């Protein structure tokens, strides 16, 4: 008769912040983005909007302001949610901020994003991207919240990481816009016939799709890669 000896579990110390060097830069970029993008909308003056407001659609600007405000909550709160040391040391704060992220951030921002996208003057390609993004963002966040409520924390983490990269996609698509503007500028007088409307719509369409699809694919690749690394380490 064999006896199975169970080794006592060793409590791992929390990972120090300096072992996650991306946390500080992420928070800094998020704060800088909010400081730059939020103030014009606090004035409630449509003339100061960084996004063109559709003429004849008075409801567009209030919806846009609401989307920006709720989106700001999502951007700032997600920085704490993906910080491993903060989650481990302050689990109650993680849960409270998580509720704010879901119910005062992503969900209302995603719903308003649908209406804002319909009125946006950036062409059908950008509209399709923003509508798809809002739907996927909403769905990933709800799936993550439900997994957390069911105490399926592995699934909760995966869905919330997807939600996180979609949240910060509003920042990453700002990287694509100037890049495409530089690359396509020589074609403005030829391909676009000097038409700035078509030129801007092309840049907006490419930037909006790449701004969230690329980060989401990278996130999924990373999630799929980790189990294989873990299995290899146990051999």
Automatic annotation (TrEMBL):
It comes from the Bacteria. The keyword Ribonucleoprotein does not apply. The chain crosses the membrane at residues 21-39, 59-80, 100-120, 126-147, 159-176, 196-223. Keywords: Membrane, Transmembrane, Transmembrane helix. InterPro entries: DUF2306_membrane. The keyword Transmembrane applies. This is Membrane protein DUF2306. It comes from Saccharopolyspora antimicrobica. The lineage of its organism: Bacteria, Bacillati, Actinomycetota, Actinomycetes, Pseudonocardiales.
